[in-house]
Structures are given as C-alpha cells and as structure tokens.
User: Fold this.
Amino acid sequence: MSSAALATESNATATAVKSAPAQAFIRGAITPAHVAFYKEYGFLVHENAFDPDEIDELNRDTAKICRGEYGAVKGGWVAGTEGIDPAASAGQSDDEVIKKFLCIHFPHKISQTMLKSITHRSFVHVLTNIIGPNVKCMQSMLFVKAAGKPGQAWHQDEFYIPTRDRSLTGGWIAMDDATVENGCLWVIPGSQKQGVLWPQHTHTDRRFDCAGESFQFPYTDDDAVPVEVKRGSVVYFNGYLLHRSLPNLKKTGFRRALVHHFMSAESLLPWHPPKEGQHMGMMDVRDIVMVAGKDPYAYKGLEDIHKAHVRATGEGGCGDPKKNLKKEEKKD
Ligand SMILES: O=C(O)CCC(=O)C(=O)O
Assistant:
C-alpha cells in the first residue's frame, strides 16, 4: 500500500476515533470491546484507575524525589543536565523544587511509592487482558512538566525498548488533568498496526526536548488525536504507536505523569548490546519487576543495572545532537 493510501486510511481512522470513542474508555472492568479497540487503534484510557489519595501520594513522593530525600540523582545523557542535589532545595517550596525538572527516569529505583505503583490493580487488570497472563515491567519515567516546559517529539517506544513479540505497553498515569493546553499525549491511532519501526533523527524544534524524532512514516499531524484525560486516569499505549506531547503552554502549574513500561514475561528483553561471548539471540535484560503471573526466566535471577537519572529539557540546547542520539539509542 502506498504512503498516500495509508495516510488517507489513517485520516479516516483519526475521524473514527474522534467520533466514536466509547470503547476507548474503560469505566469499570475491561471488556472484549476494549481489547478489540486496543488491538485496532493501539491505545486505551482507564478512567479513575487511581484513587485521588493514591495520586496525592504520588505527587507528594515526586516532591521528595526532587528534593533529594532519596539521595542525589545524576543528570542524564546531555552534558550540563543538572541532577538532583539534596542541598539545593533548602528553603524552597515543593513547587519551586519540582519545576526545575522535566522528567526523572527510573524513579522506582529509589522510591518505594513509585515501585509499589508498578503492581497497581489497574495494571494487573488491564495488562493481563491486553498483553497476556504473564507481565513484567522494565522502566519508569516521572514527568513533572511544569508550565513552559517542552514536550517530546513523535516516537515509538519500541525504538528504545525492544521486545521480541511487540508487547511493549506504556501505562501513563495522569497525576494532573492532562489537556491540549498543558501538553497531554497525542497519538496516531492505528499507527502501531503495521508493526514497522520508523527511523529517528535529531531535530531542532524547540517545542520538544532532546529525544530523537521519528520520521519517514506515512502519517501527518492531521492524523493525530489528543488524549485529554482526568487526573487518576491511565493511558495505555502500544510500543509501536506513534505518539508525542506538545509543550505545557499554561502560565502556572504542572502536567505530572508517571509512566511505566510493561511487556510479556515470555519475551526476552534485548535492550543492551551483547558483550563478548554473549549471543544476540539470547540477550535478556533482567532488571525487571514482575507485575502478574509467572516469570519463565526466574531461574536466571534479577539484575540491578539501571539508575535513576534526570532527563535533559533541551532548554540549554542539546549539545552535539549526533552524539546525543547515539547515546540515547543505546540507553533507555
Ligand atoms: O508524557 C510525555 O510528555 C511523553 C511521554 C511519552 O512519550 C512516553 O511515555 O513514551
């Protein structure tokens, strides 16, 4: 099928999703209609998945992380990205402290609250229906995204975290109402279906942070739909789904979200290149948390490889873009 034909089909898809979204919203138990919607369009929203007090706890914990109460956290791959220094927040309000950071990767490595959220009842319920009975998690990201902070350009999460069976699924917990104005997620419905991973390049678009941007895909921005959700909702999305977020254009406040990445426990996780003597086909990062069911590779034990780190905002420039992308491709 030509790119033009695909783009036309996708425009029709975006219209269908905009006009008939009932099956996109889980309001209680997940049904076969929700699962069918997910398979077709690559995303789903679980409304009221987290109770208000659970979200309050995550927001309190975000302040603790940014204050360095769980220890110092290093800056990420772009030179000059400031890390979290426990001494730096003395005398500052929580809002003043958290607004310095766009996103912290792997918060579950330092916070028990973040770790506990990985096995939340919504994840167990929804993921065992859309992935399968055995589910593991390998990554978390805590977006603070204060007013004025950038979004992330079009990308597919499997570009970063490759599974063997295309089971990668994001579980994006809204810790504030997420709107077009404050930088909610945008998705291209159905873009996961082809199972194609599009290339990435560096970009110079100041609306976005330093992460690479997918290109050469047969869709346009007109094919995208915003996923506006209330605080406490979880947005589930497939690792091949093209998605992005725009900057937070509000004058004040935050668009906080905690996103975990999940996959089937049966799939190996070839996330890092093999070392000398290791076979590519057997590469399997074991820095995981089990969410549901059985771990067929439990006999291998677990590893502790990844460390919490602060992601670059791009506001100070992204350094040498070529170098950034190279490093980022290797990493989380
Ligand atoms: O929350 C955002 O702004 C971007 C999140 C995202 O793209 C992801 O979790 O893959």
User: Anything to note?
Assistant: The domain at 3-330 is CATH 2.60.120.620 (Jelly Rolls). The longest strand covers residues 135-143. The chain has one domain: 3-330.
